[in-house]
Amino acid sequence: MKSVIIRPERCVGCMQCMIRCAEAHSQSGVLALAVSESVLAKPRIHIGVGPELRPFPNKCRHCEPAPCQEACMPGAIRSDIAAGLKIVDLNRCIGCGMCGMVCPYFAIRYYPAAQAPGHGQVAIKCDGCFERVARGLEPACVEACVTGALTFGEVNQHMNEGVNRLADAAFGVTA
Amino acid sequence: MSKRDFSDLTICKDGQAMLAKAREDGVETVWDRKRAQEPHCGFCELGLSCRNCAMGPCRIDPFGHGPQRGVCGADAHVIVARNVGRCVAAGAAAHSDHGRDLVETLHAIGEGATGDYAVRDPEKLGRIAEELGIPAEGKDVKALAKAVSERLFEDYGIRREAPALLGRAPQKRRDLWKKLGISPRGIDREIVEMMHRTHMGVDNEPVSLLLHAARVALSDGWAGSFVATELSDVIFGTPTPKVSQVNLAVLKEDQVNILVHGHNPIVSEMVLAACKDPEMLKAAKAKGAAGINLAGMCCTGNELLMRQGIPMAANHLMSELAIVTGAVDMVIVDYQCIMPGLVTVAGCYHTKVITTSPKAHFTGAEHLEFTLQNAREMARKAVRMAIEAYGMRDPKRVSIPGSPVPLMTGFSNEAILQALGGTPAPLLDAIKAGQVRGAVGIVGCNNPKVKHDYANSELAKELIKRDILVLVTGCATVSTGKEGLLMPEAADMAGPGLKAVCKALGIPPVLHVGSCVDNSRIIHLCAVLADALGVDISDLPVAAAAPEWYSEKAVSIGLYAVASGVFTVLGVTPPVLGSSTVTGVLTSGLEGVVGATFAVEPDPHKAAELIDARIKAKRLALGLSA
After folding, report:
1. pLDDT for A112-128, tens place per residue?
2. pLDDT band at residue B5 using 50, 70 and 90 as cut-offs
């Protein structure tokens, strides 16, 4: 399973991921135009602030089972749009805020969206850039990240590499 | 945010009270906006982003994972050095363009083209004329004003080898600058050359860029800022010691409160004259006010404080909070350090914001353009509007915290020499005897990244304890003033040597010497002391510190201090850490070149240690006790 892998220690807090996420979810898909659309797109990845102002990238983990999905009364959070992703169906979302209240990762925000009927306030969260990925692209946040804090890859492979690094450390080899 | 949180933001009780009121009133302040900006861009904080051309913008990845060169091929070192260069150019431009306005004013006086301004200190004008080789004999004040201003206009151009007052620097220092190729020529020339060098494809060697940055900074410190200080003294009077007051409690509940904010006394002096006008006072009384109360913020406040003893309401970070009192009827601004957010805050109350300079317009403010011909009339017009605004004040929303703190001001070099009996000898004797171990200029701003006023005042307290005399300018004036450090009584907080000297002379251990352009007074004093001892400035037991700096001007000031031989400690890291070369040059490499470096130390107690060690070393090298 491919996923966005986050290494907070590499994040410099440039927030380029946020800008490019918003761009990717805008109507035009182009930064220069996206910033003047009547309903502005919003980022679905966020940079938190840790100790000593250390930046902390945070986004939806697409849990299974997903507390947000279980709390969603109108059934707007769907598993059947793209494999392995929990995606908000903006035609069903009523902006009640339940999903945000139960999200253990604080990964959901509420904003008006151009794609929602009547442009009402709806749940905005990571959709794994499923449309971009289907076109063979990486998620927008990953493409924007120049420090390697966000990468896109097989989780198991990432784990295997991690084991090797751990082994190096355990035997006192420095990279 | 709880009350405790407010005390994390500022040490000032009046500031904490107004932060709480701002929260209640729903007013956004500089601290809220800073929080919303966090985390700041990591590339920019490291100096690793470049916006100089449209092939970019580019960033260099400091972790080595991503790009190591910009599109043009510039590496981290070139990008960081170019950014430092442009930062210094902007800072020097601000001080020097301020100075230019005073040259123009003096010229208009000479030409008889202004009825509103005159020369208040003709003796100083005469002394400067003599220094410039302009014979004063047979010339009246106007003719002298014209001749001096015409020579100083040339400081801005390319027609001279050196600015007019550069001869004030010790010969050794000037020889060094010449050898390094960093003797300042014309002010505008150095700034323009920096903009040229940092264009894509010009100067691509970090050390070369940094040396030119030093040249730009020297054209600020020994020319642009010098001109601003000296001509302000000529036109508005050379400051003499006097006592005034500081903090938000200088605002008066029963009077029309006008604040001047910005930098140039050309505007604030005219506002002061209008506030004293009997006709205006009558109009204010007719509106039910007991009088018209003028107070200052930032450096134009320092200018009025130094020369006229007008009280100081606030420094940089407190400028919005002054309005939050609900008692400010008008803020009259000119230029520099006026946060655009001020207009938004004023919009939450009845406060009017008046802009005056053709160079500085603010959306939402009312513009009354002051010229050399109409300034007096414009100032009266503004004061009349303030009186009108007083009528709109809502007494239920007024809250003026605490009570004012007294401070002593007015220590121009002329005043310091006079206090010493006409020569620097008594000060030198005290230094030699170790009663005064050295002197430090604490200068510069506030920055919301630093607990407001903490680092400025704490460093001053720590230094005077160690028998080190402190000189303050700019926003550090208010930081130290509010802590009572600018009164002669503060001598009791000083070490035994400094305490005795202060008591004997009746002066405070922390001397207020002016606004941010008046750092030229400090560098001039260093030159006078070095000449008297027959040494270079870099041999003196002196240092500089900018514990809470934020502005490009502070970078220029810091660099002219270092390039003049003064060790300088910054409390906020400048955006250079992305380049080991640039960081290395600034913090160690320059020592062997100009005899001083920068250091960065946010903790004021550790900064005092660094400064103390430096002063100790310099004293020992001069054959004095540590």
Report:
1. 999 998 888 999 999 99
2. confident
Pick from B39, B43, B62: which is nearest to A53 by CB? Answer: B39
Q: What is the per-residue pLDDT across B326-354, written as a single tens digit (0 to 9) for each?
A: 999 999 999 999 999 999 999 999 999 99
Residues of chain B with a CB closer than 8 angstroms to some CB in chain A: 38-44, 46, 59, 61-63, 65-67
Comparing CA positions, the residue from B56, B87, B62, B89 lying closest to residue B76 is B62
User: Does B65 sit within 8 Å of A14, measured CB to CB?
Assistant: no
Sign of the CA dihedral with B319 first, then B337, B575, and B460 last: negative
Closest alpha carbon within chain A to B58: A146
User: Are the beta carbons of B256 and B290 closer than 8 angstroms?
Assistant: no
Reply yes or no on whether the pLDDT at B56 is more than 80.
Answer: yes
Mutate to test the interface with A, among B34, B63, B449 (most CBs of A within 10 A): B63
8 Å CB contact of A147 and B41: no
**Contact assessment for residue B108 and residue B117, using Cβ atoms and an 8 Å cutoff:** yes
User: CB–CB of B67 and A13 under 8 A?
Assistant: no
How many angstroms separate the CA of residue B434 from the nearest CA in chain A?
Answer: 41
Residue A113 in contact with residue B29, Cβ under 8 Å?
no
CB atoms within 10 A of CB A168: 12
Residue B577 C-alpha, separation from nearest chain A C-alpha, in angstroms? 13
The pLDDT of B531-554, averaged and rounded, is 98
* Secondary structure class of B294 (helix, strand, coil): strand
Chain A residue with minimum CA distance to B449: A53
Query: For the whole model, what pTM was predicted?
Result: 0.91
Which CATH architecture is the domain A60-125 placed in? 2-Layer Sandwich (3.30)
Residue B53 corresponds to which amino acid? C
- Report the phi/psi class of residue B413: left, alpha or beta, with left for phi > 0 and alpha for psi in -120 to 50: alpha
Q: Output DSSP code: residue B38.
A: P
Find out whether B243 and B512 touch, Cβ atoms under 8 Å: no
| B59 with A146: Cβ contact below 8 A | yes
CB spacing of B63 vs A14 below 8 angstroms: no
Please give the ipTM for the structure prediction: 0.70
Residue ranges of alpha helices (H) inside B112-247 are: 122-131, 141-153, 171-180, 187-197, 206-219, 225-236
Give CATH 3.30.70.20 domain extents, chain A.
1-58+129-175, 60-125
Alpha carbon distance B165, B119 (integer Å): 20
CA distances, A102 to each of A69, A108, B173 (Å): 10, 10, 68
Q: Name the residue among B603, B599, B313, B301 with its Cα closest to residue B451.
A: B603
Read off φ and ψ for residue B193, nearest 5 degrees.
Answer: -65, -35
Put simply, the answer to whether B38 touches A54 (Cβ < 8 Å) is no
Domain covering A1-58+129-175 in this structure, CATH number: 3.30.70.20
Distance in angstroms (rounded) separating the CA atoms of residues A126 and A86 = 8
Q: Determine the Cα–Cα distance for residues A15 and A26; give it in Å rounded to an integer.
A: 17
Residue B482 tokens, joined: 């509010």
User: Do residue A147 and residue B63 have CB atoms under 8 angstroms apart?
Assistant: yes
Helix axes B552-563, B206-219, angle to 10 degrees: 100
Q: Are the C-beta atoms of residues A97 and A110 closer than 8 Å to each other?
A: yes
Q: Please judge whether A14 and B67 are an interchain contact, meaning their C-beta atoms are less than 8 angstroms apart.
A: no
A24, A37, B94, B236, B247 from B148: Cα distances, Å: 62, 57, 22, 16, 38
pLDDT tens, chain A, 175 aa long: 799 999 999 999 988 999 899 999 999 998 888 888 899 999 999 999 999 889 999 999 999 999 999 999 999 999 999 999 999 999 999 999 999 999 999 999 999 999 998 888 999 999 999 999 999 999 999 999 989 999 999 999 999 999 999 999 999 876 5
